[in-house]
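Illustration 12: ABC-2 type transporter.
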Amino acid sequence: MRAFATQVKNNFFRIILRNPRFIVFDVGVPALFYILFTKVMNQGMPASFNKTYLVSMAIYATLLSSIITVANNVLSDTDQSYLRFIDVSPVSRPTYYTAMGVILLGLTVIEIAIIELIAKFYVGVSMGIGNWLAILVLATVASISLMVFGVSLAFCGSGTVVNLMVNVIVFPVAILSGLWWPLSLMPNWAQTVGKLLPTYQTSVIVNEVINKTTISLNAIGGEIVWLLLAATLLFAVQKIQRTKTRK
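Figure caption equivalent — predicted structure in token form:
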């Protein structure tokens, strides 16, 4: 337990305090989008748009931090031989990943909370405290599968390859899952693909909860499937990496 607490403390300093650019990027981009679409380009939008787009930008923030920030931090640890140090220290890799997950989940909570504060005090969104908490908790929990994917991507090649992959994945996922603009505006094939993505499933669940409608079991099942796929991918890429290391 002491080793885990120490690792959490180390990760807090390494990931958050010493890398403020990640926080600025992860929070700043979704917040800028939210302000732009609700305060500047909001002509003809229904009254419910500000609340719906809040959910989208909260999920978009988790997508950025869970894929880009996670992949870059794990890649940095690999390049700087930090993971090799972990392998010969009392701290196991599962402890390392769990401690990193705790810090990144905390970062996710901060990101969503900041966007919620902007929505309430600047944009003027009015909701009960239960809805604010629902967005915060559900979007954070749903980001776990995305984080596992982010870790997996870090083992898929050099820094150039990983950065290319995360950008190729993150922004198309944001668009296809309807986070930037409504899915209904896209071609039928794009809607079909988008409805399969984990970020779309999260959006469905969160919106159903805050609007107090029946929660889609398909969306919950989709989230579980994506978590299993992410865990399988992480296991596979780590096994491949260990095989290459032995050679």
